[in-house]
Write a structure and sequence with these properties.
Blueprint: E1 5-6, E2 20-21, E3 41-45, H1 52-59, E4 76-77, E5 80-81, E6 89-92, H2 104-115, H3 122-135, H4 156-168, E7 174-178, H5 185-197, E8 201-206, H6 211-214, E9 219-224, E10 227-233, H7 236-243, E11 248-251, E12 257-260, H8 279-286, H9 294-318, H10 330-341, H11 347-367, H12 372-392, H13 396-408, H14 418-422, H15 426-432, H16 440-458, H17 467-507, H18 513-543, H19 549-576, H20 580-596, H21 614-617, H22 619-632, H23 648-654, H24 662-686, H25 699-702
Parallel strand pairs: 3-8, 3-9, 6-7, 7-8
Antiparallel strand pairs: 1-2, 4-5, 9-10, 11-12
The structure holds adenosine-5'-triphosphate (ATP).
Adenosine-5'-triphosphate (ATP) binds at residues 28, 46, 48-54, 66, 69, 205, 207.
Length: 739
Amino acid sequence: GPGPVLLPDEEEDRVPAVELKVAPVRFLLKNVSGEAKPGRLLAIMGPSGSGKTTLLNVLASQLVASPRLHLSGLLEVNGRPYSAKNYKLAYIRQEDLFFSQLTVRETLSLAAELQLQDISSVEARDQYVNDLLFKTGLVSCADSRVGDAKVRGISGGEKKRLSLACELIASPSVIFADEPTTGMAEKVMETLRQLAQDGHTVICSIHQPRGSVYAKFDDIVLLTEGSLVYAGPARDEALAYFSKFGFVVCKVACNGYLISSQLNPCLIDRFICPEHVNPAEFLADLISVDYSSAENVDASQKRIDGLIESFAEQMPSTLYSTSLSGLDLKDTTTLRKKVVAKSKGGWWRQFCLLLRRAWMQIVQSLSVYTNKQESADYVYTMLSVSEKLFKVVNVVDFIITHAVLGILLKHQIHNLHEDVYQSPVWSIIMDIKASRDGPTNKVRSRMSIASAIIFGSVFWRMGKSQTSIQDRMGLLQVAAINTAMAALTKTVGVFPKERAIVDRERAKGSYSLGPYLLSKLLAEIPVGAAFPLLFGTVLYPMTRLHPTMSRFGKFCGIITTESFAASAMGLTVGAMVPTTEAALAVGPSFMTVFIVFGGYYVNAENTPIIFRWIPRVSLIRWAFQGLCINEFSGLQFDHQNSFDIQTGDQALDRLSFGGSTIRDTVVAQSRILLFWYYTTYLMLEKNKPKYQPLEPPPRDQLQTPLKLEPLESETEEPYQPSESPLPDQGAESEAIPAQ
Ligand SMILES: Nc1ncnc2c1ncn2[C@@H]1O[C@H](COP(=O)(O)OP(=O)(O)OP(=O)(O)O)[C@@H](O)[C@H]1O
C-alpha cells in the first residue's frame, strides 16, 4: 500500500516545507505456499493480475531480476532445496517464439540436436522427433512451416504444442505452462494431462477455464491479489471447502450464478454445484472484485479479504499433506538421470548446427514467402529519415529517392508523405510497380533495382561538364545512404524478435553466444552481398560512372562492405533495445547523425569541436569517401575558365579527401564493422535474462512446521456464522467465520 506522506503542520505554514514520501511497497505474492505432486495436474487459477504468472516464474526460478523486487521463500524438490543442476524444468510461456521459416519437424529436429548430444545417429534422432510429434499431436502438421504474424503458418494451438514438444526434448521432471489454453484449449490440456499421468509434475496457470478443461485438473491453487484463497484438490473438494463458509453455487432464473450463503433457506438444498454448471466460473466469480457498482466493489472486496484470511489461518492443515514416501518416485528418478546425461555439444558442433539453422531460415524466407511488412517498415523508416534530414539540410535528391521508394509500396501504406505524391518521378515509378505478392527475394531485389533505376534516371549518363561534378557527388552520397539504410532497417526489423528466441534458448543452456553470432554472420554474407551488388550493377552503367571494370568492382566492394557495417550496427541496436518498435525508432536516428556527417552535407572542420569525431565513425562518410576516390581519381573534366575544376583530384581536394586511398576507407569501414559486431556481442552478453535470486525466508517464518497433518485427520468444524455480516450479492449476507 502507499506509504505515509508527511505534510507540514498548519502552524509551520510559513516555513518552507519538506515533503517526505516513503516509496510505496506492493506485494505481488504474499504468504503463498503450496505443493505440486508427480502424476497430478495442478492449475493456478485466479483473476487477471492476481499473480499467476509471477508465481509460476518464482517456482520455475525465472522471475526476471529487478532491483525493485524482493523475493524470499523456500523452494524444495522432493524434500530438498531446489537446485537447477539436479532437476530439469520445462517452461512453456504465453508467447510462442520460433524461427518462422522452419517446419515443425525441422524446428524440433534442430532443437533435439542442440540439446541432446548423446543421440548420434540420424535414425535415432528422427525416431525421437517422431515420438515427440506423436506425443504432442503434431504429426499432421509436421512438415508445415511454423510461420509468424506476417506469414501464415501453423495454428496457435499447434504452436503451443510445438513449444511443449521443444521443452519435452530435455525430459523435464517438472513442466510449467503459463496460460497454455491461449491457443486450442482442449488439445493442449489433454497433452498436459497425459504428461502428468506419465509421471511428470505439471503446473499450469489459467485464467478462467472451460468446464471440460477444469475437469482435467487434479489440484488447484486459487490466487487473488497475490494471496491464496484455496490450495488443494480440484472439483468437489474445492466446492465443499467454500460451502463451509456458506458459498454455494446455484443457478438462478436470470441465467447467472449467484454467490450466496448457506443460511439462505431457498439455497440450502442446492449445496452441490450442479453437473452442468462450470465450477471454474463459480470460483472465478467468488474471488473476483465485482466492479458493477460501488456497493458491489465494497461487498466483493470484503468477501475476498475474508476468504484470504480464512485460508491463511487454516493453510498449515491443508498443505504438505502428501507423504513423499507414499509416492512412486521411480519415474522421476529415471527422468532425472536422463537430464544429467543431456549436455550441450562442443563449440564446433553448436556452430555447425546454428549455421545450418540460420541458413535454412534465410534461404527459405528468400524462396517461399512475401515479406510485405518488412518492405513497409523499410519505407516508413526511409520517410522518417528524409523528413528529419529535410529540416537540417535541403537535400532534394534524398527526398526524391525516399519518396520514390515509398511509392513503390504505395498499395501497403496509406499515409505517405505529401512529397511522395508531388514528386516529379511519380510517373516513372508507376511504371515500375513492384509486385506485392512476389516472394521476398523478388520484392527486395525489385526494390534494389527500382532505386537503382530511379537514381540512374535522375543522374542519367553524366558527362564530364563542370556541373556533373556536383551530380557525381550527389549520386555517390545518395548511393551510400540508400545502401546503409536498406541494410540497417532490414536488420533492426528482424533481429529483436530473433534475439528473444535466442535468449530463451541460451537460458536453457542449448548453446553459447559465440557460435550463434558467428554462424549468423556467416549465413547472412551471401544474401547481404547480393542486394548491394544488384543495385550497383544497374546503377553503374546507367549513370556512366567511371567506366572501367576495376572501378566497377571497387564500387560494388565499397557499398557491400558498407552494407555489412550498417547491418552490424543494426544488430547492436537490436541487442540494445527490447522491441522491434524501439529498434526501428533508435536505429534510423543514429544513422541520421552519420548521414549528416556523411562527408557531403557538412565539412567537419566547420562544426563545433565536440562533433568532429563523428565523421571518423560514420560508415556513410567512409563509404562516400571511398566511392569518391574510386570515381574522381584520374578523371578529366571539361573546363573553360581558369578557376574551373580540371581534374578529379582537384574535386577530391575540395572535399578534403585528397591524399587518402580506397584501401584506407575500406580498412576504416572494416574497423567500424568489427566494432559493431563486438558491441553486439557485449550487448547480448550484458542483456541476457537475469533471474531474481530466492532469499531464505526470515527466521520466524522458518519455524512454521513443514510436515503437517493430512487433511483427512482434520476434524471439520460445523459452519458458525460470525458477528460481523459479510455483504453478499444475494439478499442475505453472512460473514466468513474468523477461525
Ligand atoms: N517485475 C514486476 N514489477 C512490478 N510489478 C509486477 C512485476 N511483475 C508483475 N507485476 C505486477 O504483478 C501483478 C500480477 O502480475 P501477473 O502477470 O503475475 O498476473 P497474472 O495473474 O498472470 O495475470 P494475467 O492472467 O492477466 O496474465 C500485476 O499487477 C503486474 O503488473
